[in-house]
Amino acid sequence: MRIGEIAGLVGITTRAVRHYHHLGLLPEPRRRANGYRDYTLRDAVLLARIRRLTELGLGLDEVRDVLADDAGREIVDVLEELDADLARQQEEIGARRERLGVLLGQARAGRMPAEGPVSPGLAELFGDMARASAALPGPEPAMAARDREMLALLETVVPEAERDRLLGSLREMARAPGAMERAYEVYAALDALADAAADDVRVEETARALAGLLPDDVVPDGPGDLDGWSGTVFFADFSAAQAAVVRRALRIAHERGAR
Amino acid sequence: MRIGEIAGLVGITTRAVRHYHHLGLLPEPRRRANGYRDYTLRDAVLLARIRRLTELGLGLDEVRDVLADDAGREIVDVLEELDADLARQQEEIGARRERLGVLLGQARAGRMPAEGPVSPGLAELFGDMARASAALPGPEPAMAARDREMLALLETVVPEAERDRLLGSLREMARAPGAMERAYEVYAALDALADAAADDVRVEETARALAGLLPDDVVPDGPGDLDGWSGTVFFADFSAAQAAVVRRALRIAHERGAR
DNA sequence: GTTGACCTTGCCGCAGCGTCAACGTTTCTA
DNA sequence: TAGAAACGTTGACGCTGCGGCAAGGTCAAC
């Protein structure tokens, strides 16, 4: 048989056959006078075994191991490991499909947030925001979108355990009567401070309003938390007045928490 | 932020961040005086979106598509396609695990055939052979192992539909009373002809015995089927007498089938 | 001053082949 | 009998999503 014939017989490509030669999985057969490889039925038998093994999901080096040792002992280990691996993959895919299903539900309903895929809990919070915003006159404050971005970032940043606690606090806050309306007032007030200086007279009252919204347990451990690079980065595209509001609000909330 | 800081914040590696730059997924940020990349919070937000999307299983070019068009329309298509893809993968893996489970059962019972993984039906046939052989005195004829190899090859070679029919015929044949014993007599007789010439006196009776075992529908369409290269390959390491037996048996079975 | 932890660009490697390229051989057809 | 189509040969690059290493430059701390 020539290479095309054996490949067609076994149901693989000639390229794969040569690849197996290259890897030493299949010994090079004798050559004809013209240099063509000349295969026998035994090669086909071997190739068929290789194909069956690879179709199970074994890597080519594992195939080589299995073909090499006739112990019949090691193959059990390889197969068990492979099965465990496949089981893990199945679970992973299942989890992904679950998240995907939620996202697809949002996306189909036209409620795919611009922030990209987020957890169900956060998606619900964003939905509440959308409803609250729709009930208010005028366009949504830019700061609201910024806040959602920050929350989406926060969600991917914090570890799992803390994430649930944090999300819980947020949703609890959002469910408080009138909280959404007050939040949107703060957003609007912050928008109004987009070009203001740090000593603007509106800073203090906006900070108080913001502090009134913050749950105690989403406040960082100390007000010094936003002083290092994280602070400069965090406020990178805030106006001086906006930054001042946030700093002041955190300080107020922190003092309140300390009492 | 420097690259290590943003990478740590978002939970990816610096290498990945640079990779995203290279692919144009994430715009290169400004550089500091020393050449270091200087990231902002917006970059972190973007990176977090990228991470969430890749964790869903999107490829990086799909991520780029999703990030690029704000239509919100295309993302539904991408997600649906992805979900369908994942569903297909799950089914594939499930099928593989099923086959693997059968194999593991065989392997754990020490009944892993030397021919490698085969279908449950063929495995059962091989099991019958093993039992029949164990009940007979002496070692198993080499031709029996050769036959199993051929059957395993045949199984991977023929298309699905025909495979089931063929396996059915084989198992029916194997269940006929005394068939296994007669088969092993033929194997032994063929072994005995390993060095014999084509005109050996034992050829005719062995061929008759073999023909008596063959179901009509596993006989090739015509006896000419084994005359081309497939014949020379098929008989490549048969002795002249063994080849003669098979040819004669096929002819007998074919004539019988024609009547 | 020197260590150690950063940063820079750039290139190789991975699995399992697909896909040219550039060329020789065989076989079918006009 | 010539030419084209369909095979074969070796060799090399491409794909995904980065990891890892090399050979430096930079910065803060001891």
TrEMBL record, chains A, B:
<feature type="domain" description="HTH merR-type">
    <location>
        <begin position="1"/>
        <end position="69"/>
    </location>
</feature>
<dbReference type="Pfam" id="PF13411">
    <property type="entry name" value="MerR_1"/>
</dbReference>
<protein>
    <submittedName>
        <fullName>MerR family transcriptional regulator</fullName>
    </submittedName>
</protein>
<dbReference type="InterPro" id="IPR047057">
    <property type="entry name" value="MerR_fam"/>
</dbReference>
<dbReference type="InterPro" id="IPR000551">
    <property type="entry name" value="MerR-type_HTH_dom"/>
</dbReference>
<keyword id="KW-0238">DNA-binding</keyword>
<dbReference type="InterPro" id="IPR009061">
    <property type="entry name" value="DNA-bd_dom_put_sf"/>
</dbReference>
